[in-house]
Design brief:
Layout (H helix, E strand, L loop, with lengths): L11 E5 L4 H12 L3 E6 L2 H11 L5 E5 L5 H11 L7 E4 L14 H29 L2 E6 L12 H20 L5 E8 L5 H14 L3 H9 L10 H12 L10 E4 L6
Parallel strand pairs: 1-2, 1-4, 2-3, 4-5, 5-6, 6-7
Length: about 260
């Protein structure tokens, strides 16, 4: 068991979607463990605020990026590499939209795949060559229980998150002997802005109260509670620790016991 309070000293971690929610919690866990962290995202003001909060714990940088754009990703990572080799990549940027399948148009379908799957692909391609050259690196993809199960009315989102898990497993096997691990954490409903959006949509479409809408979502969690961002962050951090080097190609469900 590692008792070092700063086991990630000297390492550089990049967290996409790091300005709030799960991404911010993961960034906090990593910087507290000693890593210098670069927060990436589209909202510069949100990134700056989060960096100010985290700077009390360690070194934090910010970099604007649109993970759906190959040019934006390439430029962002080129800038980030000025802070040093990237030891850890956490692909957390994501978005969820709901619609019945028959009303899911091509634009919505592409939005879900672009941000939730293609973004993971583009960012991973930016860091992997140097990781392989150094024979060292950790890639953690924030997927979802939607990548392990099917949920009604979010076919595009589920397809994207299933894709993230498939890519995680495939890449992990491809680089298994080359010093790089690739894993995914799969949160259930988590207390973030995305959850609030889901609740608001249920209220608008069904006329239920806030409590009734929350209860409808809680039914998927056997513990009857929502996951917290810090719980997801703890699992992500564990996958980055030295003693987790034998863990690769795994999808860790953080869902209160939801049956996969």
């Amino acid at each position: 068991m590692n008792t070092d309070t700063h086991p990630l000293d000297g390492q550089h971690a990049v967290v996409t979607g790091g300005g709030s929610g799960i991404g911010a919690a993961i960034a906090h866990a990593l910087v507290t463990a000693g890593a210098q962290v670069t927060l990436m995202g589209r909202d510069a003001a949100r990134l700056a605020y989060q960096a100010e909060v985290l700077s009390e714990a360690g070194t934090v940088h910010v970099q604007s990026v649109d993970v759906t754009s190959a040019d934006s990703v390439a430029a962002a990572f080129a800038a980030v590499r000025e802070h040093g080799f990237i030891d850890i990549l956490v692909n957390n940027a994501g978005q969820a939209e709901a619609a019945p399948f028959a009303k899911t148009d091509l634009a919505l379908w592409k939005r879900m795949l672009d941000v939730n799957l293609t973004g993971v692909f583009l960012c991973t391609q930016e860091v992997l060559p140097a990781m392989l050259e150094r024979r060292s690196g950790r890639i953690v993809n924030v997927a979802s229980t939607a990548g392990q199960l099917g949920y009604a009315y979010v076919a595009a989102y589920c397809a994207a998150k299933h894709g993230v898990i498939g890519m995680t497993r495939s890449l992990a096997l491809e680089v298994a002997t080359r010093g790089v691990t690739v894993n995914a954490v799969c949160p259930g409903y988590t207390e973030t802005g995305l959850l609030e959006q889901s609740i608001e949509k249920i209220i608008a479409q069904t006329g239920r109260s806030v409590d009734e809408a929350r209860e409808a979502l809680l039914r998927s969690n056997p513990q009857r509670r929502f996951v917290t961002p810090d719980e997801v962050a703890s699992s992500a951090l564990w996958l980055c620790l030295p003693e987790s080097r034998s863990i690769t190609g795994q999808t860790i469900s953080i869902s209160g016991g939801e049956v996969m």
